[in-house]
Amino acid sequence: MKSVAIKLSLAENVKSFVNIVSKYGYDMDLRAGRHVVDAKSILGIFSLDLSKPITLEVYSDDCADLLEEIQPFKA
Predict the structure, then answer these.
(1) What is the pLDDT of residues 42-73, one digit of tens each?
(2) What H or E segment, with its residue span, contains residue 14?
(3) Domain holding 6: CATH number?
(4) Residue 75 has what pLDDT?
(5) In terms of CB atoms within 10 Å, which end of the chain has fewer, N or C?
């Protein structure tokens, strides 16, 4: 499992982020405090406090391609 801090401050960022992560087959969650949502769910992401960085948890160790593609969102 890999964890990365990301920042999604604009609605366009959330849409782009979901489009990227949806292309990958691994399971991913976003964690903000004690709240956890599916990283591929736009509605789930909007239920989080996006004013602070959130943690992306990828349940795969072979995800270098994904981490490279989400580089612009890293906090």
Answers:
(1) 999 999 999 989 999 999 989 999 999 999 99
(2) helix 11-21
(3) 3.30.1340.10
(4) 87
(5) N
SS3 40: coil
Residue 54's SS3 state is strand
Tell me if the pTM is above 0.70: yes
Which domain, by its residues, includes 46? 2-73
Position 31, amino acid = R
Tokens of 62: 């072979």
Helical (H) or strand (E) element with 11? helix 11-21
Q: Do 75 and 5 contact (CB within 8 A), yes or no?
A: yes
Residue 27 to residue 40: CA distance in whole angstroms: 9
